[in-house]
Design goal:
Two copies of one chain form a homodimer. With about 325 residues, the first copy, chain A, is of the alpha/beta class. In chain A, about 35% of the residues lie in helices and about 15% in strands. Chain A has twelve helices and 13 strands. In chain A, the strands form two sheets. A seven-stranded parallel sheet of chain A has the order 8-7-6-9-10-11-12, with helices on both faces. Chain A has a six-stranded mixed sheet with strand order 2-1-3-4-5-13. In chain A, strand 10, helix 10 and strand 11 form a beta-alpha-beta unit. In chain A, helix 1 runs parallel beside helix 12 and helix 5 packs across helix 7. Chains A and B meet through helix 5, helix 6, helix 7 and helix 12 of A and helix 5, helix 6, helix 7 and helix 12 of B.
């Protein structure tokens, strides 16, 4: 093992960013990466060992220590930069960062195409029962049970995009090619040809499918509740590739179990990695483990963006993907 | 049960068309449908009971008695029309029909959108491991095994369409919206902006993915063999929503098992409903039971087309979707 180069700029990592599964070596060649998970110290002691000197933190919304609250941030007197490996920044107290003059950089749109592809894949899967078919055939049921229920067509389905940002727009563009009819809600009206609504309940009333693409904020938390699901109706389908807490999970489960909506494709959950037991046995639900963003290509791009942001910071240059830049 | 109306035109059904699961009552109100599967007679006796009078046969490529060979057709001296509930007509001896002046009508493009949607769904599933993720989460593995392999991006993948008919064109149009790069082979060059190849081996060499969309004919049978698969290469993916016999199934299985290609999405097989045992345990393969065409919407359209063709025939009007019209 090479001697740690104390000349290299120091970066403390909080949470457990998936990028270290793939780009640990490359990042460690450029920066002195302080990894709590490789230390024998408990996290709080590891943090207090380095807190006085650390200027840059890399973080992810997953893993222990991933919530960058104001009390955690207070431990780092010299902190000037937080780089998160996620597009969302709901795990970072942005108000505190702004107050302290801490810059924040995110993964920006690096994952947008992959997440949009996955959302469309989940929707086709739920409508056309692909995972259920794969299970049926692999369990040897085809020669035994001949018949299979009819599925629903993708085309001409009325799809409401909840949050027409970078991901939502790409979902819309892909689904248009299938002949879906798109409308959306978003914080503001966008220069797109799709009907714009301001109320999610009204959007649900007019749609067969809702695809959740918005950030998790105080305004979007629990946005999708029983009332919205009932407005979507018995043929309704929910796709969520955003954040678990945007949906009232127990109310969604009840609607699915009681047949008040038709199905769901869920990549995110309230208490990851724990998925509510009731969902595991439902044939009209397709589940995945928060992997909508996880491709070789997006991780290569993420590595370049993360290390570019850190290099820019240490060279006093503008960040590549600032959320807050002071 | 209503008395069979002997005034209604008689239609003998061969094979076991799925449409009778859903539109039996409606068809039986318009025609005197002769169904071997509801008779206590063996099929050959059932046929000989009705063979002298039957002018119209409805058939499907699935089920016992589904092969309309010249020897079977010889049993029906007055046969003037065959309506198949499928887009493909490889189960009908067309040369014999032509010789005898028997008209043939098919499902034409009724299923094209649904089959294209399903093909795209299978490709996203194989690249992004959606069925595998669903299995992983539903088996409770997420909290136990944290990591999951990186997937491959859909966009910028080079996709070769094998057969740019109605289905192939719709697959191409959908995948373009994901940023895939499309090329194709077909019997003849089409007025499309995609590069055209005449040799499937050359197409495979230039592509990451082959989507099989062609009809099963003497020219396409076993078109995809080991040599083509090796040309596609280790990252290669095969999607087949056409017919099982277009691929040399054992050579495909060997390439999948030995990692000579990366994965497959298969809706059709050589000996349906039997799927080779080796495929059932592969995590990089998504399987379905010949359901790419199976939606409520396409079956409603199929019912209208089938009954429209039969009505036209008995009224001496032109068929709605003729393959052969005499």
């Amino acid at each position: 093992m090479a001697e740690p180069n104390t000349e290299m700029p120091e970066v403390l990592v909080l949470g457990r960013p998936t990028i270290f599964q793939f780009y640990d070596e490359q990042l460690s060649q450029k920066f002195r990466i302080l990894k709590p998970w490789e230390s024998s110290l408990p996290l709080d002691q590891f943090i207090s060992t380095h807190a006085q000197s650390v200027q840059a933190v890399m973080c992810s919304p997953k893993g222990i220590g991933s919530q960058l609250s104001s009390s955690l941030l207070r431990l780092f007197p010299l902190l000037r930069l937080i780089v998160t490996t996620s597009a969302g920044v709901d795990h970072i107290d942005l108000a505190e960062c702004r107050r302290r003059g801490i810059s924040v950089a995110s993964a920006a749109t690096v994952f947008s195409e992959d997440v949009a592809d996955f959302a469309v894949g989940l929707l086709i899967d739920v409508l056309r029962k692909i995972s259920a078919a794969d299970r049926f055939v692999k369990n040897g049921l085809w020669p035994v049970q001949g018949d299979f229920p009819l599925c629903s067509k993708v085309g001409s389905r009325k799809v409401g995009i909840v949050g027409l940002g970078s991901i939502g727009l790409k979902v819309a563009q892909r689904l248009e090619a299938f002949g879906c009819i798109i409308s959306y809600i978003s914080r503001k009206k966008k220069p797109v040809p799709y009907p714009f609504y301001t109320d999610v309940h009204e959007l649900a009333t007019r749609c067969d499918v809702l695809v959740i693409c918005c950030a998790s904020t105080d305004q979007t938390r629990h946005l999708i509740d029983e009332e919205v699901l009932l407005a979507l109706g018995k043929e309704g389908i929910i796709i969520n590739i955003a954040r678990g807490d945007i949906i009232k999970e127990m109310e969604l489960i009840q609607c699915l179990v009681q047949g008040k909506i038709a199905g769901a494709g869920l990549d995110v959950f309230k208490n990851e990695p724990n998925v509510p037991e009731e969902l595991l046995s439902l044939d009209n639900v397709v589940l995945s483990q928060h992997v909508a963003f996880l491709t070789e290509e997006s991780f290569r791009d993420l590595y370049e963006l993360i290390s570019g942001n850190l290099e820019a910071f240490f060279l006093n240059k503008p960040l590549l993907s600032p959320v807050l830049d002071d």
